[in-house]
């Protein structure tokens, strides 16, 4: 019988790592994960059900996701050679770090931002340097560039709109960083559909820019489909480390189907944008809250009362939101995903009830 000291065999960068976690709590109304409140439209779902009958599940999927790439390339007016498909955009973040960084190298991220940039980097032994955002949740391009140069950083990750703050960074500052940084800029546009702001056209002029997109926020979270757009040389190198068959047959087909019939999904996106404005306006009427501007499908707000107490009040009444108050810059902050009108009304009602205590 062996009794190996397993901890000694695990890399230090893994032993000291805390896993990414969300509130995986059962709740009647889930407004915590920035998912769409809607499944794909019935027309798409019914047609996809018919497709399933022809699937050969005993065969491997297309390793290059050719048809899905064709659909994306047509929609974005780009070429298949400029696209990579990932098992969510998280996988592409991992692949980029594998391609461009060796152990001990450094990346730059703003703070606060999406936690997975730092988590994946640490798992590979890559160091992360943070540049704090200002009171408007924006950054200074010169400071970002100086920090990157000082740390000999290989990549800069920018979430646009930023998660969890919801805002889009200054276009001028982003352009400055793209044009002056002697490394790779990754613009994570996972929430593009709700902001309609993108730097994808800058790829033609700047070969160091990579744009990430996701279908998780617009109805396909369970399918795990993300994609990256970049210079063809970068895509070629990513494909050297990308695992074969990383995108399964069902995900490829449904994603292709959704993109080819995007007008149906756009109606859901427009609904969410309308509800976002209504929800923001209603929250602003509550004097105990500070509501931050957003161009995403979620709203960050700060409460004068205890965020923990409000979080558990909502949870007790069947509503799950994201509690961010453990982050030093997000003290007493909660993040709520825009839901359906009835879900949003329930949320507003319970926030009001709590505030009146």
List keywords for this structure.
alpha/beta, Aspartate Aminotransferase, domain 1, 7-stranded mixed sheet, single chain
Describe the fold and architecture:
- The protein is an alpha/beta fold.
- The protein folds into two domains: 22-40 and 264-355, Aspartate Aminotransferase, domain 1, CATH 3.90.1150.10; 57-262, Type I PLP-dependent aspartate aminotransferase-like (Major domain) (Aspartate Aminotransferase, domain 2, 3-Layer(aba) Sandwich), CATH 3.40.640.10.
- It is built from 14 helices and 13 strands.
- A seven-stranded mixed sheet has the order 2-8-7-6-5-3-4, sandwiched between helices.
- Strand 9 (289-291) and strand 10 form a beta hairpin.
- Helix 4 (66-76) runs parallel beside helix 11 (249-260).
- The termini are far apart.
- The model has no long low-confidence stretch (mean pLDDT 94).
The largest pleated sheet is described as: 7 strands, mixed
Major sheet: arrangement of strands: 2-8-7-6-5-3-4
Radius of gyration: 21 Å
Helix and strand sequence: HHEHHEHEHEHEHEHEEHHHEEHEEEH
Give the distance, in angstroms, between the N- and C-terminal Cα atoms. Answer: 61 Å
CATH superfamily of the largest domain: Type I PLP-dependent aspartate aminotransferase-like (Major domain)
Q: What is the number of strand segments?
A: 13
Outline the low-pLDDT stretches.
none
**Which shape, going by the Cα principal axes?**
globular
Helix content: 40-55%
| Beta-strand residue fraction | 15-25%
CATH level-two architecture of the largest domain: 3-Layer(aba) Sandwich
- Per CATH, the class of the largest domain reads Alpha Beta
Which structural category do the helix and sheet elements fall into?
alpha/beta
